[in-house]
């Protein structure tokens, strides 16, 4: 019963139900063109809203680089964590100042920092994502300190505003020296392509995986979460295309 209520309260499920009803009304009213249009819209929303549909888009991005589960064979100078948004607000714990993506990247950065023996620096890179909002890297750095990372092991850069500017900022810091790059799994292919175009070869450490790969009947019910995952993938494909056209 709880699962049914969860599904019924999801806005995407409500919209899909409304489209099904509208399509049925259009068929009964013999408005075939309208029924076809509603059916196409509903089918696209359904496909993007179920887990297998979102996964079909996510899989090529998230499986491009494996997770970093053991220390790299070569020595690294730093762990570079690209920020992924903020949610700052007054009178909140510092961990609530981060978006879901930034929090996942922070946790992965700390995990790798501990994996390497806590003797390399954590470097957070990312400025103002939305005009009028705070810079992201200082917020992530504050959260890292709140979670026990010593201040002397932390650096941050808060002027870069996108992946290309992130890469330029990191190259100014480390040149072509070896470092680990932490970002969301769906974002890693674009990040690696940009960093490599600028002459760097970071060790990829993707995190925050959204692709599931195995399914249960519940996964075929449309959910807004899947629509957000599909949006992440579509945005990455468009951004990859833009970078390749602009910087070829």
Give an overview in words.
The protein has 2 domains: 2-62 and 220-246, no CATH class; 78-207, 3-Layer(aba) Sandwich (Rossmann fold), CATH 3.40.50. Helices cover 51% and strands 10% of the residues. The model has no long low-confidence stretch (mean pLDDT 89). A 5-stranded parallel beta sheet has the order 3-2-1-4-5, sandwiched between helices. The radius of gyration is 21 Å and the shape is elongated. Helix 4 runs parallel beside helix 9 (224-246) and helix 7 crosses helix 8 (188-197). The protein is an alpha/beta fold and 248 residues long. The protein is built from 9 helices and 5 strands; from the N terminus they run H-H-H-H-E-H-E-H-E-H-E-H-E-H.
What's the SSE blueprint?
Elements: H1 2-8, H2 11-28, H3 32-49, H4 51-62, E1 78-82, H5 100-115, E2 121-125, H6 136-146, E3 154-157, H7 163-174, E4 180-184, H8 188-197, E5 203-207, H9 224-246
Parallel strand pairs: 1-2, 1-4, 2-3, 4-5
Shape: elongated
- Write down the CATH class of the largest domain: Alpha Beta
The CATH superfamily of the largest domain is known as HUPs
Give the neighbour order of strands across the main sheet: 3-2-1-4-5
Assembly context of the chains: single chain
- The CATH topology of the largest domain is what? Rossmann fold
Give the name of the CATH architecture of the largest domain. 3-Layer(aba) Sandwich
Alpha-carbon distance between the two ends: 54 Å
